[in-house]
Amino acid sequence: MDYAFCVLLCTQAERASFIGSVDALYLKTEAANKAQKEYTSWPEYTAAFLAGIQFTKGTDKAFRESMKDKEAFIVKLLASDHSPLQKVGWNTDLFVLKERNEESRLKIQ
C-alpha cells in the first residue's frame, strides 16, 4: 500500500493546493517507478495494497466491513478484459524525471 498511498496522498495534496502540480507529478512518478521495481505484476501489487489496507484497519472485521463495497470492483479490475490492468502491462516503460536541483525540490517542514 505504501506506493499507492503515496500517489493518493500526492493527488489529494495537489487538489487541496498543498503542493504544486510539478511536485505532485515528480513524487507520483517516483512512487510508480519504485513500485514497478518492488512488485512483479498488477495482481501482486494489488495484493500488497490490500494487505496495507488490512493493516491500517486494525482488525479483520474492520477490514471486511471496509471491503464490502469494493470487492466486486477489485475482482473486475483484476479479471475483466476491459480493465486497464489487462491493457497496460506491469512492465510498461515509465518516464523518469531528471533529478531536480535543491531550489526546486519540495520542502516539507
Structural account:
- Helices cover 63% and strands 0% of the residues.
- It has helices at 2-15, 21-38, 42-57, 60-67, 71-79, 84-87.
- α1 (2-15) packs antiparallel against α2 (21-38) and α3 (42-57) crosses α4.
- The protein is globular, with a radius of gyration of 16 Å.
- The mean pLDDT is 83.
Low-confidence spans: pLDDT under 50, at least 5 residues?
none
Q: What is the overall number of helices? A: 6
Rounded mean pLDDT is 83
Largest sheet: none
Q: What is the number of beta strands?
A: 0
N- to C-terminal separation? 24 Å
Estimated helix fraction: 55-70%
Topology as a string of helices (H) and strands (E):
HHHHHH
Report the sheet-strand fraction: under 5%
| Structural class by secondary-structure content | mainly alpha
Q: Which geometry do the CA atoms define? A: globular
Radius of gyration: 16 Å
Give the secondary structure arrangement, pairings included.
Layout (H helix, E strand, L loop, with lengths): L1 H14 L5 H18 L3 H16 L2 H8 L3 H9 L4 H4 L22
Helix pairs in contact: 1-2, 3-4
Quick summary:
The chain has 109 residues and is mainly alpha-helical. The chain is 63% helix and 0% strand. The chain is globular, with a radius of gyration of 16 Å.
